[in-house]
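Two proteins were folded this term; both appear here.
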Amino acid sequence: MKFDKHINSIRTALTFPLPGETAQYLMAPKERKSKIEYLSQNKEPRLSSVLILFYPNEKGELHTLFIQRPINESVHSGQIAFPGGKLDDEDADLSTTAIRET
């Protein structure tokens, strides 16, 4: 029952506009804010998608799935994230992207 209550709360929240760029900027570390400002002025964003998987544990409590990105030289190295990525040419839509990336 706890799980259903959480899912209904999420459904209600999703009826409102998503905070997008504003929320990303507010949560970004100081050293990233200047890069975010530069990219938003000088580069078209890539279409991308994530999958947020909610599931109940054996007690009916809400759980979700995260990944840890590989540790390498990329800007997102080692980050904890939702599974997802950029839209590829062979993806029918962003839902397909999210599922493929997951």
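Next, the second protein.
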Amino acid sequence: MIRKADPKDYPAAAALAARMWEHESEELAQGFAEADAAGEGAVFVAEESGQIVGFAQCGLRHDYVEGTESSPVGY
């Protein structure tokens, strides 16, 4: 099942993200929470048998994003 993440899901999603990106999972979880609180992003999780097995993070970027000419940009 895919659903919008609850704040309690951020550590599990961040642990998956840390496997791809060179950041500490605590730092990533904090970033997920901050983007959600600011209304600038959302995290979605894929859950299977009660475990988070995947995630997608989407949000607005106000800095330069390759190939774009406007801001903010969905990313």
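Strands lie at 2-4, 41-48, 51-61, 73-74. Residues 64 and 70 are 8 Å apart (CA to CA). These notes refer to the second protein only.
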